[in-house]
Amino acid sequence: MVCSNCDHVKIHLAGRVVAELDPDRKTFPNLPHPPFVANIREGLRGPWGDLRIDGYIGGKQVISKTLSGKGADQQFHLEPDDRELVGDGIDATRLVVRVTDEFGGARPFATGAIAFSIAGPGRLLETIPFHCLAGSAPCGSRQSKLREQYD
Fold first, then answer.
1. Is 43 in contact with 19 (CB distance < 8 Å)?
2. Which label site among 56, 121, 137, 145 has the fewest CB atoms less than 10 Å from its CB?
């Protein structure tokens, strides 16, 4: 099942088109954007590879999403909520650590302890190592920093 507001999708497996679909309006008549439903078991015969879904609106491709067929954690992302901080000693931000495949797709079964350090005047507010659940882990927060400052 693919959920999208596109009006047509093509599903590719290992570089081969295994399905071309329109929204399933018969099964889901009351939804403004019904899901696309396909049984791609036939496409699973042959070489295993990456899954790519291309979405179309009005015959024009508007999106392409690729999911890795390797089944391995490939990248580690660290994303702050704020790109700039005021160096006044009380400003803080939350960081989100994510584990992804090589295409940036979430790895929801990635788990384990994550440890890293920080250089310079900043400091981490969380206990290190902290645990990654469902492929991501938030650490640090403004509330923790402010609470610590004023308690």
1. yes
2. 121
Instruction: Tell me what pLDDT residue 108 has.
Output: 75
Q: In terms of domains, do 51 and 79 share one?
A: no
Give the total number of structural domains in the chain: 2
Verify that 23 and 48 share a domain, yes or no.
yes
Tokens representing residue 35 in the block: 């899901």
Range of the domain at 47: 8-67
Alpha helix (H) residue ranges in the chain: 142-150
Q: What is the rounded CA–CA span in Å between residue 86 and residue 7? A: 46
**4 Cβ neighbours under 8 A, 6+ residues apart:** 33, 35, 36, 55, 63
Q: Assess whether 62 and 82 both reside in one domain.
A: no
Residue 75 main-chain phi, psi, to 5 deg: -135, 155
Q: Is residue 39 domain-resident?
A: yes
* pLDDT, tens digit, 9 for 90 and up, residues 57-80: 999 999 999 988 877 777 877 788
Answer yes or no: pTM beyond 0.85. no
Whether residues 57 and 96 fall in one domain: no
